Amino acid sequence: MPKLTDSAIKAAKCPPGKDRIELADSSCPGLYLRVTKNGAKTFAFKYWSPILAKTVTLVLGQYDDITLTDAKRKVGDHRKEIARDEDPRARKRAERRKAANAEELSFDQLADQYIEQYAKPNKDSWKNDQHYLKRPRAAWGRLPAATVTDDMAAELLDEIAESAPVSANRTQSVLHKMFSWAKQPGRKLVPTNPLADLDRRGGKEQSRDRVLTDDEVRTLWWGLDHPDLPADREVALAPKAILTTMVRPYQARTDRDR
């Protein structure tokens, strides 16, 4: 059993009458080079799987796509997994299944998971997150979450910013947090965060010292009860609680928040 070298790999050929041959590497137990009759050369790792109770083969990659050094490094990494009673091939298949499921996960489904698994357990203001996700849901709800791009996010946020710059910034913050949560190792619901490198689409926010007049307070108070108000009842009650109690906005809570 010879040691595999780059020169030996380049010179390797499948004998006439055979579909493929396998060349083992004496310096790296378990590493094989497959050579097919059409000249394709692929590295593979053979090992005993305690899960299946038999020898299995894990394809490492095609020669030229990965080098001989890369193949040996992968074998070393996989041997460490085996030493931890893990099966490298089973892990890779699980990762592929998870990636396939992530591609099928719709934006609406991702938003639901974010609200239920992160926002509700960790944020008193989770209903605000739910509110700011309405426009993105309307735009991308049925699309695979993994297909949302930075251009799509920028376009939607710019549209919101035309009439409500602050709302655009809040929506951007919620989306950034949701995608960041979704791509964490061990979760990997999406491969990337399309909001990661976007600047604030609503621009820099300015602090305001202006105080509402009595007439404006009356208009706001009754307007919050208008049947056509474009906001959830819980959202409308928060300004009323602020006006009634004079507490700071982040301290305001409705009965359903408690």
In short:
Helices cover 47% and strands 11% of the residues. The protein is an alpha+beta fold.
Task: Explain what this protein looks like in three dimensions.
- This protein is α+β, with helices and mostly antiparallel strands.
- Helix content is about 45%, strand content about 10%.
- It has helices spanning about 5-10, 70-85, 90-105, 105-120, 125-130, 135-140, 150-160, 165-180, 215-225, 235-245, and strands at about 20-25, 30-35, 40-50, 55-60.
- Strands 1-2-3-4 form a 4-stranded antiparallel beta sheet.
- A hairpin with a 4-residue loop joins strand 3 and strand 4 (about 55-60).
- Helix 4 packs antiparallel against helix 5 (about 125-130) and helix 7 runs antiparallel to helix 8.
- The longest helix is centred in the last third of the chain and has 18 residues, at about 165-180.
